[in-house]
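Project outcomes to date are best conveyed with an example. Our students and postdoctoral researchers have been running inverse folding experiments weekly, and each run begins with a structure described purely in tokens. The record below, which covers 377 residues, was selected by the lab manager from last quarter's runs and is presented without edits.
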């Protein structure tokens, strides 16, 4: 009987220790679109985040603790994104939220983290308003569409070889910000906007919008969209006989995009935050490790997911704590050198000091035409 009781006690103690170890994991939450028309972008971003977590844990974790990543589907829907963030905070007890991709989803999450007092870091959402609302818990580790428009406008007009632009953009914060900021820049440089068409991210048929754009006789088309949006717009434009240059934010010119649109890649340009051609040891290692794990090339979303996890992990180390205010203050002091360059945050939580690329398709290759550093505003 004594031996039985000792065995039971030992087993219970082992279970308690295991449960205690599990409870000591640092819980991070990710809200990405894992279903719907932007699901590929969200899944590849989650893959990048998972890879970063594995690497961090393999080198001892953070503050002597393992990092755990829980994810929920935001579906690029504001209400669902907010609900997913609530679930991660209340059920998984996450200390920070990473995400979303769509600006509308990130904005909805920002209100949730503000209520609970935990930080949010997004690596993709580019709508200007997100860092203009005075939310001290929100950090954007990427550029904004407005900054891109200001920095890249002249280069885009030169690449397009014309001044008459039509827009076909997402009917959300991102697309509306793009049509406004780039349109304003083009007009200041003597350009003209011939037409503006909006679409839902789940749309697949763009023929009606493109037919209207064709009738406006643009010399170039500017667009926003994830991989599937960008591929469908490009293919359908060329099939309608629209041969003018297509330039876009999002997935344009990324390797996966090129595979989807072949053989319609000529005269396509992209404004993009990460390119596989970056010749640095960190970037080469990231690509090799990602390919080994997921059997495909990473993309800008993979890189963003990977990098944002590291930014949060380094902030936790600096803070020496996962407590909300301490972690937020540590994030504000970010000076991170990663695969996408150096990142710092200004008083609004907007990143600066990193590079953005204007790229062009050349056959099956993506060529960097220009590099622009995003300065502190």
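After processing, the design step wrote out the following sequence:
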């Amino acid at each position: 009987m004594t031996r039985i009781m000792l065995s039971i006690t030992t087993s219970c103690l082992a279970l308690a220790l295991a449960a205690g170890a599990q409870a000591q994991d640092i819980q991070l939450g990710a809200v990405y679109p894992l279903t719907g028309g932007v699901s590929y972008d969200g899944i590849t971003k989650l893959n990048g985040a998972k890879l970063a977590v594995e690497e961090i844990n393999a080198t001892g974790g953070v503050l002597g603790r393992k990092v755990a990543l829980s994810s929920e589907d935001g579906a690029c829907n504001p209400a669902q994104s907010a609900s997913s963030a609530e679930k991660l905070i209340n059920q998984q007890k996450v200390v920070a939220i990473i995400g979303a991709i769509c600006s509308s989803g990130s904005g909805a999450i920002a209100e949730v983290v503000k209520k609970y007092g935990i930080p949010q870091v997004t690596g993709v959402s580019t709508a200007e308003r997100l860092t203009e609302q005075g939310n001290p818990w929100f950090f954007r580790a990427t550029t904004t569409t407005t900054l891109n428009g200001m920095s890249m406008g002249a280069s885009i007009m030169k690449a397009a070889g014309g001044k008459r632009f039509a827009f076909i953009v997402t009917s959300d914060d991102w697309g509306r910000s793009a049509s406004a900021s780039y349109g304003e820049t083009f007009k200041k440089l003597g350009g003209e906007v011939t037409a503006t068409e909006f679409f839902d991210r789940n749309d697949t048929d763009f023929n009606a919008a493109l037919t209207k754009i064709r009738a406006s006789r643009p010399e170039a088309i500017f667009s926003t969209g994830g991989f599937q949006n960008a591929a469908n717009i490009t293919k359908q434009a060329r099939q309608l006989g629209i041969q003018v240059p297509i330039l876009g934010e999002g997935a344009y010119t990324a390797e996966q995009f090129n595979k989807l649109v072949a053989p319609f890649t000529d005269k396509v340009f992209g404004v993009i935050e990460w390119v596989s051609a970056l010749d640095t040891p960190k970037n080469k290692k990231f690509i090799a490790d990602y390919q080994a794990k997921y059997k495909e090339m990473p993309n800008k979303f993979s890189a963003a997911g990977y990098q944002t996890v590291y930014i949060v992990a380094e902030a936790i180390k600096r803070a020496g704590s996962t407590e909300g205010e301490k972690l937020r203050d540590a994030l504000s002091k970010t000076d991170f050198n990663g695969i996408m360059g150096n990142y710092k945050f200004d008083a609004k939580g907007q990143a600066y000091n990193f590079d953005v690329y204007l790229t062009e398709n050349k056959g099956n290759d993506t060529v960097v035409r220009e590099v622009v550093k995003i300065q502190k505003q």
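The chain is about 45% helix and 25% strand. The chain has a mean pLDDT of 91. The training component of this project remains on track.
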